[in-house]
Design goal:
The complex is a heterodimer of chains A (about 260) and B (about 200). Chain A has about 260 residues and is mainly α. In chain A, about 80% of the residues lie in helices and about 0% in strands. Chain A has one domain. Chain A has a two-stranded antiparallel sheet with strand order 1-2. Chain A is globular. The mean pLDDT of chain A is about 85. Chain B is mostly helical and about 200 residues long. Chain B has two domains: about 35 residues; about 160 residues. Helices cover about 90% and strands about 0% of the residues of chain B. Chain B has three helices and no strands. The longest helix of chain B is centred in the middle third of the chain and has 133 residues. Chain B is rod-shaped. The chains are: A mainly alpha (about 260), B mainly alpha (about 200). At the A-B interface, strand 2, helix 2, helix 3, helix 4 and helix 5 of A face helix 1 and helix 2 of B.
């Protein structure tokens, strides 16, 4: 198995490439590859929105605007309205923005040579923070600051216990921020490491077959097949993670609005 | 009271276990931070976190102001338009159905009426035919009667004529035979009388 001799080294190189330091400046103040790709995604997002705005009419004409509207309708009906009901229209701009921002970033990341802006915790944490603050603001508007804090402790539970349950509840609420950020980041990051690993395996075995005449190299076909399957899965994951993030944000907002206990 | 006493130790155990879980996790985080990647990938970098924070705020503001209201508005408007059009189409369909029923009724009425008219006309025709036939019959009868009368008259005239001729002839024949002129008025009357007798006998 000398074909695989250099595999661990190359994988660690691959991982390091994903963790590469800032292209310009430092990690504290500079431009990292993820921010670069996030900016690309933002430009693409604005182009899509601009193109859609120009083609928008009461009677939709063409595949682009129909496809775009299908996605907007899907998020609006199946995610926002289905979860929030009456207040859907109030929260739709935020949730639609979240969904499209993540979707475009994720999809751009699937293109070979590109990276998803959502492939770093810095970006996903910022998004999660918006979602987190958003539902807290909704809750505080509804119940007042003190009312919201009180709502963590279930009514009808005695003194020492309600404080304890309240702390656990508050902690689990805070965890939403972490889970939102880590879920999206980890999915994108792991997906790309996975894609990269199988791409490495394919190229290692293929090189062995061509240059060294090692017939084990035929396995590169299998690695390629797996790579293609993972690629398909990654495209689906890109959409699903945008959906999950928007859906959970909607659910948190709904919980904040419904919290009357 | 019993519930409180029952749950309290459990919650305490939970806290304790949380502490136990947290300690190695923290230790691992420190260790990872020292040995390069690992936990550090879960710590947001300011160079990524801050631009993302600002970028999203701008996008949110721009899209919420210029994009979503327009798209959502047009989607709602389209939905409303389609719904109205469907309602109108439904109403038009019901109206059309009603008009169709009405027309069908009218056609059925007209057909029935036409059938009545045709029936009446046929009846009238038959009546006229019968009248004409009857009239023709009457005329024919009249003509036949008249003809019969004429024939009768002619017959009588012919017979009279014949009687006269026979009388004349007889007188002349008798005159020749007996050499005596029978043209005397009395004799002639006598002969005519005989012939008339013979004629009646014949006629009988």
């Amino acid at each position: 198995m000398d074909i695989l001799a250099s595999f661990p080294e190359q994988v660690s190189e691959l991982v390091n490439e994903f963790l590469a330091p800032a292209m310009i400046g430092t990690d504290t103040f500079g431009l990292t590859q993820y921010i670069f790709w996030m900016c690309v995604a933002i430009v693409v997002l604005f182009l899509i929105i601009w193109a859609a705005r120009n083609r928008e009419s009461l009677v939709p004409r063409g595949r682009f605007i129909n496809g775009f509207e299908f996605v907007v309708e899907f998020v609006r009906n199946d995610v926002i309205k289905a979860t929030l009901g009456k207040t859907a229209d109030k929260h739709a701009p935020f949730l639609l923005t979240i969904f499209f921002f993540i979707l475009v970033n994720n999809v751009i990341g699937v293109i070979p040579g590109c990276k998803p802006g959502t492939g770093t915790i810095g970006v996903t944490f910022a998004l999660a923070l918006y979602s987190f603050i958003y539902f807290i603001v909704v809750a505080v508007k509804k119940m007042g600051g003190l009312g919201y804090i009180k709502s963590f402790a279930p009514a009808g539970v005695g003194f020492p216990m309600n404080v304890l349950v309240g702390i656990i509840e508050a902690f689990s609420t805070f965890l939403r921020l972490i889970t939102l950020a880590v879920r999206l980041f980890a999915n994108m990051f792991a997906g790309h490491i996975c894609l990269g690993s199988f791409a490495l395996l394919t190229s290692l075995f293929f090189t062995a077959l061509i240059s060294a005449g090692n017939f084990l190299g035929i396995a590169s076909i299998a690695w390629l097949a797996i790579l293609v399957v993972i690629y398909a899965v990654e495209i689906v994951v890109a959409a699903i993670q945008a959906y999950v993030f928007a859906m959970l944000s909607a659910v948190y907002i709904q919980l904040a609005e419904a919290d009357a206990h | 009271m019993s519930i409180r006493n029952g749950v309290s130790p459990k919650a305490a155990a939970l806290l304790a276990s949380a502490a136990v879980v947290a300690t190695p996790a923290l230790a691992w985080a420190e260790e990872a931070a020292e040995s390069g990647p690992g936990m550090s990938i879960l710590i947001p970098k300011p160079a990524e976190f801050i631009p993302a924070l600002i970028a999203f705020a701008i996008i949110w503001y721009l899209l919420a102001k210029f994009a979503w209201p327009m798209f959502v508005g047009i989607l709602d408007k389209r939905q409303e338009t389609i719904k109205n059009n469907l309602d109108e189409a439904e109403a038009a369909k019901i109206e059309a159905q009603r008009v169709l029923e009405e027309y069908k009724q009218q056609i059925a009425d007209a057909r029935r009426e036409a059938a009545g008219i045709v029936d009446e006309a046929r009846h009238a025709g038959e009546q006229v035919k019968a009248d004409i036939t009857a009239q023709a019959q009457v005329q024919a009868d009249e003509m036949i009667a008249k003809a019969k009368k004429t024939i009768e008259k002619e017959k009588i005239a012919a017979v009279a004529d014949l009687q006269k001729s026979v009388a004349d002839l007889s007188v002349s024949v008798a005159g020749r035979l007996i050499g005596e002129d029978l043209s005397d008025e009395n004799q002639r009357k006598l002969i005519e009388k005989y012939i008339a007798e013979a004629g009646t006998l014949n006629a009988n």
